[in-house]
Amino acid sequence: MYTDGGLFTKDGSVSAILCKADCLPHINTALSSRGSLFFANQLALTINHTFSSYEGLITGLPQLFRQQYEKHRDTIEKAGASFELWLAGWSPERGRPEAWAISSHGLCAVRHRAGHRGVSGGLVGIA
Question: What sign does the dihedral 125-24-30-85 (CA atoms) show?
Fold first, then answer.
């Protein structure tokens, strides 16, 4: 997994250089994201403590993502961007490397329809 190291302000200026990937060797996974650094750190920590296998992560991440997004929605939206999470990992069950993505794209449109605050993001495999 390759990532940039830039932390950007709302106007696109670089405000810091840091590591934007998290390694979770106990579940054969690396994570990277775009959007709120606070949410990225909270999500990585929660994933680390919630899942004990790669297969469990892939199965349970959509629900966990929705729950955590709703919990931290106000902080995430203050960052001014949608949130994207990318995973690269090894599936012992399928015996191959895999890459996945989940995002919050479209949440604002969904949120404002009849007061609905659901998360529309779902886990998508990357070929």
Answer: positive
Cα separation, 91 vs 54, whole angstroms: 6
- Please state, in angstroms and rounded to a whole number, the distance separating the CA atoms of residues 91 and 29: 9
**Residues 31-90: tens digit of each pLDDT:** 998 888 888 899 999 999 999 999 999 999 988 998 998 898 888 877 777 788 889 999
Beta carbons of 24 and 47 less than 8 angstroms apart: yes
Ramachandran sector of residue 80 (left: φ over 0; alpha: ψ -120 to 50; beta: rest): left
Boundaries of every domain in the chain: 22-34+43-126
Total residue count of the chain as it appears in this document: 127
